[in-house]
Design goal:
Length: 646
């Protein structure tokens, strides 16, 4: 058994571990979805896969955010980490592990790698004097500082730091790293990033400050009392922790030493991953990862996403609008993995309507409709060896080659382009073979059966190919085709032949796979006119309205009330204090934990009441309509807690 295990092909994929200073958004969702897609794809290739994501919880940035929120860093990270876990659940991410850097297993791993590097003689004590970017958690060399005080990466103002610090002899590994990059052309992808890293290293690597001693939120360093580990040294080690570096050498052998190791990340953190990380591993005597793949940056409707512009794309909203599979598909299809991309409603709607509703959805619908009409939805024996069919078979073989080649380089959109070429070809195949004409001639029944079988076989294959991107809809295609298996366990190897369906198999019930989305017509807005003679019902006065004290509050925590299905218990921060409010909206918020951190409106001058024995000190405002049910009135994050509704 043990012997067999060694023969397996192992694959280990990671995302960056995200800072918990803010909630997850479309950027973090993008990397995490990409990791999920490649993990699922590798499983269809027969790999034994381990996929990891998590949260980066130490460091000055997180400590300062927690302080601003009036919480200890630990309380703050405990509040934020579940937001990421819940988001990944919502996005159907099948990660094998979720690591938090505050976990004991990780702390032990950091202690282990630090002592290994120290014993190697690669750490020495010195003094760091220079500028530091808290937002990037980066020591910025003098020659890169913009206008003498700004960070070259995020543009924020740098802090002057002068403190005793321990340094890692990164410069020692410069030549070895350059040699490794040179000998392994796919070590850093895409090429543009690889060149950037090579140029950077060639300018000369400086030793890296890896300890801080002017704040305390970090992992203490055993050989350096009073110092905590620099957050990037701490964070990068997570990739080892999760596969058992510190306590499970069998797992470490399986998923690090004998595995293909792939790190996915955004272009903002390439240098940390492609320079600092390999140097740490070289010093500790650990094998380097196989691929470090950087993707581009998302903007929103053409602009940089930022809280102050209120244009940060919230995946929860997008999933509500389009469904989780369509959202996953659009992100991965819209831009090539290494390039920057713009998230625009117009593009998303057009992708969904064209690629999903028209090309794929219609193909499935037409096929099932015709099979039902001509053969009552029961598979018949058929034969068709015309040129159209042969060409389709050839195209499928080519599709598999392109998919495999592009996925090796994590070129998701290229891979999907090939899959959609095949889908379009199948649509064209219907027009070429004209089943409706064949159906008119009794003598063409066998040929008609052949054409229809080619179509259902093709759709069966398409479902497997799109499964990594759309795990729910691909299963739905199989269900509609009457396939009684879970697509989750499917293998590409098993779809190479065109022989899945057997005579007598029953196809399933046809439903709409992706409904078409209506595009809001801009002109319609201009036709709206005001009614100057409007009658106001139940008029009130400004004075009367002013008696109600309504303010912006922040939801700190939400819990279910034991024994009361309808009730949720909120802890909220008002401008002055922390209050408890009970609200009967549990049914409308099955994912109620996602409300934590949101700002909402609450009436604060109602007398306290007790609901089922629980004290409620106010009322959170909500809206109600037929389509959405009850929804809390959410307020933009840039509005301060305590702001009054006037
Ligand atoms: O850097 N477009 O965490 P982080 C695309 N904790 N991707 C984006 C994005 C955008 N607009 N915004 C964020 C950290 N990302 C460290 C990592 S790893 C050992 C430590 C994604 O929360 C992208 O993957 O700032 C980027 O690299 C990552 O979020 C940064 O996440």
């Amino acid at each position: 058994m043990c012997h067999l295990k060694k023969m397996e092909k192992n694959f280990y994929v990671t995302t960056p571990i995200y800072y918990v200073n803010g909630a997850p958004h479309v950027g973090s969702a993008y990397t995490t979805i990409a990791a999920d897609v490649i993990a699922r794809y590798k499983k269809t290739q027969g790999y034994n896969v381990y996929s990891l994501t998590g949260t980066d919880e130490h460091g000055q940035k997180v400590e300062e955010t927690a302080l601003l929120k009036g919480l200890t860093p630990q309380a703050w990270t405990d509040l934020m980490a579940p937001k990421f876990q819940e988001m990944w659940k919502l996005l159907n991410i099948e990660n094998d592990d979720f690591i938090r850097t505050t976990e004991p297993r990780h702390k032990s791993a950091v202690v282990k790698i630090l002592s290994t590097v120290y014993e190697k003689g690669d750490i020495y004590c010195g003094e760091y004097e220079g500028k530091y970017c808290v937002s990037c958690e980066n020591f910025v060399p003098e020659n890169q500082i913009v206008e003498n005080k700004f960070c070259p990466d995020c543009g924020k103002e740098l802090r002057v730091v002068k403190e005793e610090s321990y340094f890692f002899k990164m410069s020692k590994y410069q030549d070895e790293l350059l040699k490794h990059i040179d000998e392994n052309p796919n070590f850093i992808l895409p090429q543009s990033r690889r060149n950037e890293v090579i140029n950077f290293i060639k300018q000369g690597l400086q030793d890296l400050s890896i300890s801080r001693n002017t704040f305390t939120w970090g992992i203490p360093i055993e050989f350096a009392p009073g110092h905590i580990t620099y957050v990037w040294f701490d964070a990068l080690t997570n990739y080892l922790t999760a596969v058992g570096y510190e306590n499970n050498l069998e797992k470490f052998d399986e998923f690090w030493n004998n595995s293909e190791v792939v790190h996915l990340l955004g272009k903002d953190i390439v240098r940390f991953h492609a320079i600092i990380w390999p140097c740490m591993l070289l010093s500790a005597g650990i094998k380097l990862p196989d691929k470090i793949v950087a993707h581009g940056w998302w903007t929103s409707e053409g602009e940089k996403m930022s809280k102050s512009k209120n244009n940060v794309v919230d995946p929860i909203e997008e999933v509500k609008k389009y469904g989780v599979d369509a959202f996953r598909f659009c992100l991965m299809r819209e831009v090539n993995f290494g390039n920057d991309g713009d998230y625009s409603t117009k593009n998303i709607i057009s992708r969904i309507n064209n690629d999903l509703a028209n090309d794929l959805g219609n193909l499935l619908n037409r096929t099932l409709g015709m099979y039902s009409k001509y053969f009552d939805g029961v598979i018949v024996e058929g034969k068709n060896e015309d040129e159209f069919t042969k060409n389709l078979y050839i195209l499928f073989e080519e599709t598999l080659i392109v998919v495999e080649r592009s996925m090796e380089k994590l070129e998701f959109s290229k891979s999907m382009e090939a899959i959609w070429k095949f889908i379009s070809r199948m649509n064209k195949y219907i027009d070429e073979t004209m089943p409706w004409l064949l159906a008119k001639e009794e003598s063409e029944k066998v040929k008609l059966g052949g054409v229809m079988n080619t179509l259902v076989e093709g759709l069966y294959k398409v479902a497997v190919l799109i499964y990594p991107y759309m795990p729910v809809k691909s299963q739905n295609i199989w269900d509609q085709l009457g396939v009684e298996k879970s697509i989750k366990n499917s293998l590409i190897e098993d779809i190479k032949e065109w022989n899945h369906f057997k005579k007598g198999d029953k196809l399933g019930v046809a439903t709409v796979l992706f409904p078409r989305l209506e595009v809001l017509v801009e002109e319609a807005k201009n036709e709206l006119e005001i009614n100057e003679n409007l009658k106001i019902e139940n008029p009130t006065t400004i004075e009367k309205f002013g008696e109600t004290k309504i303010e912006v509050v922040e939801i700190i925590s939400v819990e279910k009330v034991e024994g009361a299905d309808r009730l949720l218990k909120f802890k909220v921060k008002t401008g002055k204090e922390i209050r408890q409010i009970v609200s009967g909206i549990a049914k409308n918020y099955p994912e109620f934990k996602l409300l934590e951190g949101k700002k909402v409106l609450a009436v604060l001058n109602l007398p306290p009441v007790t609901l089922l024995g629980i004290l409620s000190q106010g009322m959170i405002l909500s809206t109600e309509d037929k389509k959405n049910g009850i929804k809390l009135v959410e307020i933009s994050q840039e509005i301060k807690v305590g702001a009054k509704l006037k």
